[in-house]
Write a structure and sequence with these properties.
Blueprint lengths: L10 H15 L8 E3 L2 H10 L7 E2 L14 H9 L2 E4 L6 H10 L4 E4 L10 E3 L45 E5 L7 H18 L4 H25 L7 E6 L3 H7 L2 E7 L8 H13 L4 E4 L6 H7 L5 E4 L13 H17 L3
Parallel strand pairs: 1-2, 1-3, 3-4, 7-8, 7-9, 9-10
Antiparallel strand pairs: 5-6
Helix pairs in contact: 2-5, 5-6, 6-10, 8-9
């Protein structure tokens, strides 16, 4: 007697079994394909997506985001994205057109523009009279819902209402907002909510990951406050006016910037003014940046007793993973303390 092959089952029965096993074996819906602009944003998204998928980054490490030409592979990343998380056109004005042309169907989230983000006005320069007292009032801080208890919220009112910097700022928002860890905490929630809308099956995981990351940043804020405790009054110059979010959060004494917030080259008059500030304000350190020509730092330092260090708002040498953001904030504090306390 011949054994009947399962492949010869009557068609209705075979179809039924195929339906049953097809339902059982059906793969879960794919997670959203996510693109990010710069490493700080990629790190925050990576933390929220942990255990689900990994985001891609479209700007090459070590390059200045203020002006950039997309490679074909980076353009393809945008074309394939379901969601794009980016800081905003204040940081990458060229990316607006690329998003329109390449990622028109993607959900584009400009984190700097989200309600609850603490924003500071764009500065032409940092002057000596600014120091601790030159911080203008901030804009756009509607509150971080659900995080009222975070220690990082302390001190928002310390810098409001000062007019010392009046006349030196122009319209616009400084885009380097990730350097305030409280903004990073807020953005984690925005990222989790956006991902959950696209991928409800993993919504609980996204929220749990964001909550854990916010708790880690609470600890980071406390740690960095302690590390910087002894250098609040030490005057320093930065290469690129990219650090005011960090300065304000941790009450630091920046008295000058060689370049502007959007990285435009300074003129000879501004370089001369910075040299005068170094001499008059007993500036301890002048910080270079790896993305820009160090020759201007050498010009400012020439003939002075100031030391030099390196600060990088994008942490170009830090591995681009979930730990990147914590490492970036720690690296800034370590380098500031090393240079400012060496005298």
């Amino acid at each position: 007697m011949k054994r009947r092959s399962t492949s010869a089952l009557p068609r209705p029965r075979a179809a039924l079994l195929g339906l049953i096993f097809g339902v059982i074996a059906a793969p879960a819906l794919a997670a959203p394909r996510v693109a990010t602009d710069v490493a700080p944003v990629q790190s925050l998204v990576t933390q929220v997506m942990a255990g689900v998928a990994e985001p891609s980054m479209v700007i090459q490490r070590g390059a200045s985001p203020h002006s950039y030409s997309l490679r074909p592979s980076e353009a393809a990343t945008l074309e394939n994205a379901d969601i794009v998380f980016w800081v905003g056109d204040e940081l990458t004005p060229w990316l607006t057109g690329a998003l329109d042309n390449l990622a028109g169907n993607a959900d584009s989230v400009a984190l700097l523009h989200t309600d609850g983000t603490l924003r500071h006005g764009f500065r032409d320069r940092v002057l000596a009279e600014a120091g601790h007292d030159g911080h203008e009032g901030h804009e756009g801080h509607e509150g971080h819902e659900g995080h009222e208890g975070h220690e990082g919220h302390e001190g928002h009112d310390d810098h409001e209402g000062h007019d010392d910097h009046e006349g030196h700022a122009h319209e616009g928002v400084d885009p380097h907002a990730w350097l305030d860890p409280v903004n990073a905490q807020h953005w984690l929630g925005v990222i989790a909510d956006t991902l959950a809308r696209h991928d409800p099956a993993n919504a609980e995981r996204y929220q749990a990951n964001a909550d854990a990351a916010r708790d880690r940043i609470d600890g980071l804020i406390r740690q960095v406050r302690g590390e910087l405790e002894g250098v609040h009054d030490e005057a320093f110059i930065v290469f690129h006016d990219a650090y005011q979010y960090y300065e304000r959060r941790f009450d630091l004494n920046t008295v000058g910037a060689i370049s502007l917030s959007d990285a435009r080259d300074p003129g000879p008059a501004h370089i001369a003014e910075i040299r005068d500030i170094v001499a008059e304000r007993d500036v301890q350190c002048v910080f270079a940046e790896p993305q820009f020509n160090p020759a201007m730092v050498d010009t400012v330092l020439s003939g002075t007793g100031a030391r030099t260090g390196v600060l990088d708002p994008l942490g170009s040498e830090i591995p681009a993973d979930g730990d990147y953001y914590t490492t970036l904030i720690n690296q800034l504090s370590e380098r500031l303390v090393t240079c400012l306390s060496a005298g």
